[in-house]
Amino acid sequence: MADLGTRYLGHRLQTPVVVGASPLTDDVRSAEALAEAGAGMLTLRSLVAGPLSLGVEVRRLPGSERHRRQHAMFAGLLDVPRFATDVEEYCEHLAAIRRAVGASVPVVASVYARSPQSWEATCRRVAAAGPAGIELNVYGMYANGHAVPRDPEEVIVAIVRAVRQHVRVPVAVKLLPVGRTLIRFVQRLRDVGADAVVLFNAFHRSDWFRGLEHDARLPGGPADPVVRYFWISRVSAVEGIDVAYSGGVRSVDQVAKATLCGAAAVQVVSLLMHEGPAAVRRLNEDLAAWVASRGQRKLRALQGEVSMRRYRLLDAFELAYTREILLGALPAMHSRERREARSGAHGRGRTGIAASGAEARGPTAG
Ligand SMILES: Cc1cc2nc3c(=O)[nH]c(=O)nc-3n(C[C@H](O)[C@H](O)[C@H](O)COP(=O)(O)O)c2cc1C
Questions:
Q1: What is the Å distance from ligand 1's center to 189 Cα?
Q2: CB-based pocket (< 6 A), ligand 1
Q3: What letter does residue 3 receive in the DSSP assignment?
Q4: Which residues are CB-neighbours of 66 under 8 A, at least 6 positions away?
Q5: Could you read off the pLDDT of 72-104 as tens digits, one per residue?
Q6: Spatial contact of 5 and 40, defined as CB atoms under 8 Å apart
Q7: Spatial separation of the C-alpha atoms in residues 171 and 244, rounded to whole Å
Q8: 8: left (phi over 0), alpha (psi -120 to 50) or beta
């Protein structure tokens, strides 16, 4: 099997397929199962620090009876409060997960603080519990109608700077890919000490809440990753900071495209909640098959092939990006379902596939 190793957030991971922040790791047994299935890294769901708005504590994760029956493995997830709020409990849980999965699968904490002071204090406490890194869940800052900061980017830079002064473990920042100055923003985050950015689409509810079918009427839904490909291919040209992709991974297609664009890691949540840890194994196998199909033995050889970092001429980059990412001249054929579906089918295009509708639309949102 091809070597899927990657470097992300200061760690060598066995694979770029990692578990995103979510209740998937609320339970030690499910964390173990995900690690055993081959997840490259686990991210705990966010610890929410500081005063909570009324009613938040009692909100439960929604989910249908169908989910409950279908996904016995994660059935318990539907009964947990939406947020973790007790920092000591969170740290104990982190330690328990670390013990259970061992050193080969790094475990990252996630923090969302509600007041400027609590970012620093909370991260300091969480860092002392020994996570492989801390992901700062700041994407809500762009869209929180109650407390829109004057300039969210300034506030986020200040948070990262303050956290960095007190915390040694690597720090990732989970962002929305919005704003025309994203590259400059990422450079500033790097300059104040961020080790990675996670580009995430929070404009639509996660697929978990409505099944995995993408509603084609919603451009930029979670299953439409085009804007994140666009930004990953550009942001990955920024030296000294890693980029991860989050949102809408359903098959190896998204993992491969994000990798070509330069993502060091690809976070998955909804798919795992629907299909359980087996989906991690399948993604890894399909990814290895894709790497082999490109004549390589290591994923790293393909990582960033369509990143702006590799090109001196913008035109050449745009051409490669259009061909590989927008026109879909790639990896889907190597996913098991498609391989099976293809048997007997006629080829279409260079590698036999057409771009998917959602992915061919262009960077409108995402
Ligand atoms: C039930 C659930 C809980 C989540 N909790 C968090 C969280 O605590 N912190 C966070 O940063 N993201 C959280 N997310 C967002 C995921 O980490 C991920 O970015 C998002 O679900 C998109 O990825 P997906 O399409 O693979 O689900 C959550 C998602 C789901 C479905």
A1: 22
A2: 20-23, 45-46, 61, 110, 137, 174, 200, 206-208, 222, 246-249, 267-271
A3: B
A4: none
A5: 444 444 455 556 678 899 999 999 999 999 999
A6: no
A7: 13
A8: beta
The total number of residues written for the chain in this structure: 366
Sign of CA dihedral 250, 255, 258, 263: positive
Domain residue ranges in the chain: 6-360
Tens digits of residue pLDDT in 257-301: 999 999 999 999 888 887 889 999 999 999 999 999 999 999 999
Query: Nearest 5°: phi and psi at 165?
Result: -65, -20
Percent of the chain past pLDDT 70, that is, above it, reads 70
Distance 20 CA to ligand 1 centre (A): 6
Helix (H/G/I), strand (E/B), else coil: 332:
helix
CA of 22 to the centre of ligand 1 (A): 5
In contact, 266 and 258? CB cutoff 8 Å: yes
The answer for 247, left when phi > 0, alpha when psi is -120 to 50, beta otherwise, is left
Q: For residue 242, what is the enclosing H or E element?
A: strand 242-246
223 near 249, Cβ under 8 Å?
no
CATH topology of domain 6-360: TIM Barrel (3.20.20)
List the residue whose alpha carbon is closest to atom 1 of ligand 1.
22
Residues of the chain by 3-state class (helix, strand, coil), percent to 5: 45, 15, 40
- Those residues of the chain that have pLDDT short of 50 are 52-78, 204-205, 208, 212-223, 331-334, 342, 344-366
